[in-house]
Amino acid sequence: MLRKREEGRGTGDGAASLPRRLARTVRRIIGAPDYEAYLAHCREAGHPPRLSEREYVKEFLDKKGGVRCC
Fold first, then answer.
1. What is d(CA 38, CA 47) in angstroms, rounded to the nearest whole number?
2. How many angstroms from the chain centroid is the CA of residue 22?
3. Domain chopping of the chain, boundaries
4. Contact 42, 34 (CB under 8 A)
5. Which of 53, 31, 30, 32 is closest to 42 using CA atoms?
6. What is the DSSP string of 23-34?
7. d(CA 57, CA 63)
């Protein structure tokens, strides 16, 4: 399902979107918030984003239990 959503993204030039895809992969691995994915979800759902990037990150971290080092 995730691959299907990502196929429709980008400019069609795989090299141009490689850094963006790599950054998304790293964020998933380390469990960091992905605001770009949130914006893509809002576009696909047909509604404007209700959170700014700062608000999104704060809500994400609050749901995870705050910032942890270990």
1. 11
2. 12
3. 34-70
4. no
5. 53
6. HHHHHHHHT---
7. 10
> First and final CA of the chain: distance in angstroms?
31
Q: Are 60 and 33 in contact (CB under 8 A)?
A: yes
| pLDDT tens-place string over residues 31-55 | 788 888 899 999 999 999 999 999 9
Share of the chain above pLDDT 70, in %: 70
Q: Is 12 left (phi over 0), alpha (psi -120 to 50) or beta?
A: left
Q: Distance between CA 19 and CA 22 in Å, rounded?
A: 5
Residues in the chain: 70
Residue type, 27: R
Tokens of 18: 């490689």
pTM given for the model: 0.58
CB-based contact 19:54 (threshold 8 Å): no
